[in-house]
Write a structure and sequence with these properties.
There is one protein chain. With about 425 residues, this protein is of the alpha+beta class. It folds into three domains: about 60 residues; about 100 residues, Uridine Diphospho-n-acetylenolpyruvylglucosamine Reductase, domain 3; about 230 residues, Vanillyl-alcohol Oxidase, Chain A, domain 3. The protein has an eight-stranded antiparallel sheet. Strand 1 and strand 2 form a beta hairpin. Bound molecules: flavin-adenine dinucleotide. The site of flavin-adenine dinucleotide has 33 residues, from strand 3, helix 3 and strand 9.
Length: about 425
């Protein structure tokens, strides 16, 4: 055990806690029973302070064995294993996690606790939906839960952000793949309305889709976008699994610049270059799985000191109205606090976990360089100007939710009695 300063990926709110590395369920149960302020931590990839507790204990589970994958793609994984480790085992055997977030440096436990989503949410839903059963440790000891055994605890743990206990092992159903490459369609759109219209009508033809949005343009070009989409159902089997692109790490969307360099001028210049260098329309370009799914992070390490402190503004907006809603338009105009990375995605049906973030509709992620408290205040403004109208805030990303604001996060209908 050691006293350490911890922060999230955004490095916005460091706090000091006792870090306890544990390697058995009994150690976890003892730690939970003997501390009043305690939370699990995976690889610290949540942007805010979700895996921190100031003055308390932060538990890091070392239980990370990966079992054999059976012929149905079912695998038993220690919750402390990273997605990166699982991918290294599964891809050569022709299996892929059913859902993967934009980084492979998350633990399986962290992926369930945040019920993470990927580019295929509109087709496959979020991560926890593919969990067959899991082990959860509470102060009373470990238990196996599933949709049929203690379903309340199972569901509350999906997206429960570590508040229901510590997940130690997970039985997961993987997705069959025939190649370690995908065929990517890319298309540029002159504004937000057009890309959203295309996604509304065309997403069903693609298993994976996501749009990069330029937040620096205005007027008729507000939110000009680049949509990338993959339809695995249409893939040929000509690309072999052991191809010449093993785990290539893409450099797209990786920002490793001092905060001061991320100003409206440099962001505008980058966006201009990025938009113009992208093809107007390109069909079926082969790309490695790694570079398509995880373009931004490869290292298991904490964020480099040089990288900007990041505040990510991420909310989900319900389907009605189906066109761009005020909640999503307003934050595009953050004035001096320009977003250096904005990503738009369509969500499919929610998962049954009452705290799970995704809901049918849209989600927009805005990365902002965090320079001062005034940014945090400004970032709240859009929610006041444009009420969420039944939307949600992503707890794994948020670093600005104030006491009381989260009350609307779980609708009464979704609360566990
Ligand atoms: C570059 C980048 C891209 C990302 N892209 C996406 C994306 O596309 N989609 C998406 O949904 N998310 C995305 N994320 C967010 C990330 O997937 C989540 O924050 C995820 O929870 C991080 O996992 P972790 O292991 O680092 O957990 P941590 O950040 O350490 O913890 C997250 C939460 O999980 C809890 N937790 C961790 N381990 C356990 C456990 N064993 N048992 C119980 N609770 C536990 C913690 O208490 C905490 O509340 C991204 C993050 C980064 C940095």
């Amino acid at each position: 055990m050691s006293r350490v300063t911890l922060c999230g990926w955004g490095r916005t709110s460091p706090s000091v806690a006792t870090l306890d590395d544990v390697s058995s369920e009994s150690e976890i149960a003892i730690a939970l029973a003997s501390s009043r302020a305690i939370i699990a931590r995976g690889l610290g990839r949540s942007y805010g302070d979700a895996a921190q507790v100031s003055g308390g204990t932060v538990l890091r589970s070392r239980i990370g064995d990966i079992g054999p994958i059976d012929d149905q793609g079912v695998v038993l994984v220690g919750a402390g294993a990273s997605l990166d480790e699982l991918l290294s085992e599964s891809i050569p055997q022709g299996w892929f996690p059913p859902v993967t977030p934009g980084t492979r440096q998350v633990t399986i436990g962290g992926a369930i606790a945040a019920d993470v989503h990927g580019k295929n949410h509109h087709v496959d839903g979020s991560f926890a939906r593919h969990v067959i059963e899991m082990r959860i440790v509470t102060p009373g000891g470990g238990a196996t839960v599933s949709p049929s055994v203690d379903p309340e605890l199972f569901l509350a743990t999906m997206g429960g952000m570590g508040l229901t206990g510590v997940i130690t092992a997970v039985t997961l159903k993987l997705l069959r793949i025939e190649t370690d490459q995908v065929l990517v369609d890319t298309q540029r759109f002159p504004n937000l309305d057009e890309v959203m219209s295309e996604m509304t009508h065309g997403d069903e033809n693609f298993r994976y889709s996501v749009a990069w949005v330029d937040c620096m343009t205005r007027g008729a070009h507000l939110g000009r976008s680049i949509l990338t989409a993959v339809n695995t159902r249409a893939q040929t089997t000509s690309n072999l699994l052991h191809s010449s692109h093993p785990h290539r790490r893409g450099s797209r969307f990786l920002f490793d610049a001092p905060n001061g360099l991320l100003n409206p001028l440099t962001i505008r210049a980058f966006n201009e270059a990025w938009f113009r260098s992208s093809p107007r329309l390109q069909l079926a370009k082969p790309e490695s799985i790694s570079s398509f799914f995880h373009p931004s992070t490869g290292s298991r390490l904490e964020p480099p000191v040089r990288s900007p402190r990041i505040l990510q503004y991420r909310s989900a907006c319900p389907k009605v109205p189906a066109t761009p809603c005020a909640e999503h338009r307003t934050p595009l105009i953050f004035g001096p606090f320009a977003s250096f990375l904005a990503v738009l995605k369509r969500f499919g049906p929610s998962s049954p976990g009452p705290l799970s973030f995704p809901m049918p509709g849209w989600t927009l992620a805005l990365d902002l360089a965090h320079r001062s408290a005034s940014l945090t205040r400004s970032a709240r403004r859009p929610r006041r100007d444009g009420p969420l109208g039944g939307g949600r805030i992503y707890l794994a990303k948020d670093a600005r939710l104030s006491r009381g604001e989260d009350e609307g996060h779980v609708s009464p209908a979704r609360r566990i009695p």
